[in-house]
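Reviewer has doubts. Consider these tokens.
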Amino acid sequence: MTDALKPPYLEKDERRGEFQVWIVDGPYIRGHVDEEFTNFGQHYRFPYIPEKEFWIDREAQHDERRFFVDHLLVEHRLMAAGMPYEKAIVLADQAERTERRKAGDVRKLTHAGRQLPDGKDVHERLWKRLESGLSVWIVNGRMVRSAFDIDFTEGGHDYVYEFVPENEVWIDDAIEEAERPFVLLHELHERNRMAAGWPYSRAHAESSKVEVHCRHHPDELHDALAAEGWA
């Protein structure tokens, strides 16, 4: 980070051995430092984080801090020893998934004798149903990560995730309300491009550029959303 940027710290949380856990201003980081910062991070994944700190985004809803810290401890240790991120995250995800199972999250979605959870079980509330027939839902992000995809962050849609019902866009309820329209823009833009035949990598890259632009020019957000069918 440069001197022109404010420190993103909001709250000093627990210590885990030599590491200080900080609750940080995720929207500010995504808007001014790194659009790809997600729910949490450590130095070897995001070099702007000090080496002995773990950063966790302030959560709007369900408390997942203990899961994230367990993940970061494994990820940091492996990457510090030279393991690439792509391999370290697999093992860190395994450790995090173990803790989520202990918390009983998946059992809450497999009631009535069902063996597998259903995507609709994580719906919190319908944000809007578009004229195109697309439905945008605020979803229980903790349950999505516990039951479907541990790496789910911010949002997603049916063209990327097989567990998202057809014609649905999901917005993670861990994202604070003021930031949700920017995530929504990304997901709508990405889905519209993929529906037109674009591969995910190209659609995601362009959607990230559009999202970053509107984070820096919020006066353009309304028109950008309207262009993607949000009217």
